[in-house]
């Protein structure tokens, strides 16, 4: 595939992709294709994909409906949870509206309790996610994955064959490789593109429904970036910042913008939407397809796991690979698991890797932009 548009325009298109997909999802519905709404990286998307469903991410990232949510939910709750609930309650999100089934997982306490109320607006199915990555946990999640497959079969009156799951695994792996191929360009120093542009592509691609085309597009973007780099188009040298923590699309993305506005270069995203959801492939050689899915998905190093060694392993690997000068952790307000983990992450980053670390707690509003700006500017100045 050859990219007709220039890179800035391509990045702009991806930044608008979520909104642009509203119409696409309507068309998918009209064509009689099922739509499955999902919340979390732990969900094996290969299963709905294997029955030909479109999978849409529902984690709402704006504070537009937070006030509506706060009429029912506590104010002191993670904005991602309030926003998700608010969009469902007010029916303002087309992805919620068109979802035939919404699937959540028992990740953090706030989210799993919110799903109980969400079930009053929409058909909701909850996967029981173990909180520990040990032998029993993998076996339990394997069973949960089979239970989820059976739920899909019953709900949509379809049969999901093992062959179709294998095909979906292969396609998802190809998508992961294409995403990884693109973000790994950020190992280069000086950088070939802005971290914010990269993020828009990573985030925007989750709202593209034609996966073959998306894979081809991602590969084409990579080629174009590489070509321009070889021709001498790259960014000026700047302190290289690695982002970790809670998911950061939408309202919380202000942190990335502030880092770049203050002269920092965001080189990598360890959190969901970045490497956490992409780095590891599903083993296509494993004879037991459900075991392969359980091992890949339960391995994700989210702070809802206790202990959570895989997060530290990935983070350490990325600090080295992307030659990070510092780590900034973004914690969504009232996200207790990530917040508690900042203590361990700080020690890991500063003591084991010898680079500075800062955690910022924020929500989807713009109320703290001034204060964040001051802190980020001071942090970058110190580097
Ligand atoms: S795998 S990061 S998408 S749970 S909702 S834990 S921010 S208090 S989103 Fe997540 Fe899956 Fe983990 Fe990724 Fe905190 Fe808010 Fe909970 Fe959250």
Essential attributes:
single chain; 4-stranded parallel sheet; 16 helices; binds Double cubane cluster; 383 residues; alpha/beta
Explain the overall architecture:
This protein has 383 residues and is an alpha/beta fold. The chain has a domain of 150 residues: Rossmann fold (3-Layer(aba) Sandwich). The strands form two sheets. It has a four-stranded parallel β-sheet, with helices on both faces. It has a four-stranded parallel β-sheet with strand order 6-5-7-8, sandwiched between helices. Strand 5, helix 12 and strand 6 form a beta-alpha-beta unit. Helix 9 packs parallel to helix 11. The radius of gyration is 20 Å and the shape is globular. The chain binds Double cubane cluster. Double cubane cluster (BJ8) binds next to helix 5, helix 7 and helix 15. The site of Double cubane cluster has 20 residues, from helix 5, helix 7 and helix 15.
Largest sheet strand order: 2-1-3-4
Biggest sheet statistics:
4 strands, parallel
The ordered string of helix (H) and strand (E) elements is HHEHEHHHEHEHHHHEHEHHEHEH
Number of strands: 8
Distance between the terminal alpha carbons, to the nearest Å?
41 Å
Query: How much of the polypeptide forms β-strand, as a percent range?
Result: 5-15%
Report the top-level CATH class of the domain at 11-160: Alpha Beta
C-alpha Rg (nearest Å): 20 Å
* Unreliable stretches: none
Share of helix, binned: 40-55%
């Amino acid at each position: 595939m050859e990219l007709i548009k220039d890179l800035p325009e391509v990045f702009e298109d991806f930044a608008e992709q979520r909104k642009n997909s509203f119409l696409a999802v309507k068309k998918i519905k009209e064509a009689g294709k099922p739509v499955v709404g999902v919340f979390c990286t732990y969900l094996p998307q290969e299963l709905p994909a294997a029955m030909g469903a479109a999978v849409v991410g529902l984690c709402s990232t704006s504070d537009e409906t937070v006030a509506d949510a706060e009429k029912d939910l506590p104010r002191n709750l993670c904005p991602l949870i309030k926003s998700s609930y608010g969009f469902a309650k007010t029916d303002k999100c087309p992805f919620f509206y068109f979802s035939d089934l919404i699937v959540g997982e028992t990740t953090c306490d706030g989210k799993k309790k919110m799903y109980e109320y969400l079930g009053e607006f929409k058909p909701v199915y909850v996967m029981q996610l173990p909180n520990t990555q040990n032998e029993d946990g993998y076996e339990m999640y394997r069973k949960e994955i089979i239970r989820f497959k059976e739920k899909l079969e019953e709900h949509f009156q379809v049969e999901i064959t093992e062959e179709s799951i294998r095909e979906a695994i292969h396609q998802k792996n190809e998508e992961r490789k294409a995403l990884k191929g693109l973000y790994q360009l950020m190992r280069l120093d000086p950088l070939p593109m802005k971290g914010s542009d990269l993020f828009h592509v990573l985030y925007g691609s989750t709202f593209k429904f034609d996966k073959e085309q998306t894979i081809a597009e991602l590969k084409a973007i990579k080629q174009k970036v590489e070509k321009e780099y070889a021709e001498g188009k790259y960014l000026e040298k700047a302190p290289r910042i690695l982002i970790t923590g809670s998911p950061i699309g939408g309202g919380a993305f202000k942190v990335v913008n502030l880092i770049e506005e203050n002269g920092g270069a965001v080189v990598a995203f360890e959190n969901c939407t970045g490497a956490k959801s992409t780095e590891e492939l599903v083993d296509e050689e494993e004879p037991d397809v459900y075991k392969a899915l359980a091992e890949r998905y339960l391995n994700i190093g989210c702070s809802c796991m206790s202990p959570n060694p895989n997060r530290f392993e990935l983070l350490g690997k990325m600090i080295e690979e992307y030659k990070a000068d510092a780590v900034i952790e973004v914690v969504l307000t009232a996200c207790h698991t990530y917040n508690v983990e900042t203590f361990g992450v700080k020690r890991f980053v500063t003591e084991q890797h010898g680079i500075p670390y800062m955690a910022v707690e924020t929500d989807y509003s713009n109320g703290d932009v001034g204060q964040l700006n001051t802190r980020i500017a001071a942090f970058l100045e110190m580097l």
